[in-house]
Amino acid sequence: MRYYLANFSVFILILMTNKAFSNEMTLNELFFDDSRPYHIKILDALPDSAIIQIGPDNAKNTVIEFMDYFCGYCKKIHPELIELAERRDDTRVVFLQHPILSQSSEVIAAMVVAANIQGKGNEFHNALFEISGSLTQEKLNQIISDLEINRNKLMIDIGKDEIKNVVKLSSFVAMGSGARGTPALFINEEFLGGYVPVNQFERFLR
Questions:
Q1: Given this model, what pLDDT does residue 7 score?
Q2: Residues 47, 79: contact at Cβ < 8 Å?
Q3: Is residue 56 within 8 Å of residue 48, measured between CB atoms?
């Protein structure tokens, strides 16, 4: 088993609750049931709005990155992961929210989830990592305009508990899976904390 409970408080929370949080999966099933691969259970535990994916659902290999849009190493690895998914039709790459660097990280993560509900999540996600230099309000507004995202709906949705809870759940799963920082990667069942060039972990793919 290559994942770890992040800290004692997470362990206590798991023991105290058995509530289903997505697709009727419970916390006990996610962390302690070994009947299915852990990286697959991560995706089953999260709602569709939490998932940014490149590659087919039935891909033989799954690469999961827990990331923060203000993380420099997440920005560095992003084009490598995109290239991997485009080069290998047997591999999907899934990006999941883990906004831990600042309050701004949480706001941007919520915006991506809200954009995903509008069917613009992938485009918004990629555009954020493709920005040259720092992310400013002007650049953010330009992305929203260029992608024809409904700005009014976006601003309303990011204030909803439904959206905030998706981000919190994704980050909770990240912490429970061993992510102490970002990026944190699952290459199928292999967990890697921190930046690792794709050419160094591709050997873990089948």
A1: 41
A2: no
A3: no
Count of domains forming the chain: 1
Report yes or no: 164 and 21 within 8 Å, Cβ to Cβ.
no
Give the chain's end-to-end CA distance (angstroms, integer). 18
| Average pLDDT score, the chain | 88
Instruction: Please state, in angstroms and rounded to a whole number, the distance separating the CA atoms of residues 67 and 181.
Output: 8
Structural domain including 35 reads 8-192
Would you call 62 helix, strand, or coil by DSSP? strand
Q: What pLDDT, on the 0 to 100 scale, is given for residue 1?
A: 40
Mean pLDDT of 26-45: 82
The average pLDDT across 143-170 equals 96
Which tokens in the block code for residue 38?
A: 């852990």
DSSP per position, 84-120: HHHH-TTEEEEEEE---S-HHHHHHHHHHHHHHHTT-
CATH of residue 56's domain is 3.40.30.10
* Cα distance between residue 168 and residue 132, in whole Å: 28
Asked if residue 177 belongs to a domain, the reply is: yes
- Mean pLDDT, range 157-186, rounded to an integer: 94
Distant-in-sequence, close-in-space partners of 50: CB < 8 Å, separation ≥ 6: 96, 97, 113, 116, 166, 167, 169, 170
| Nearest residue to 136 (alpha-carbon basis) of 70, 71, 180 | 70
| pTM across the whole model | 0.87
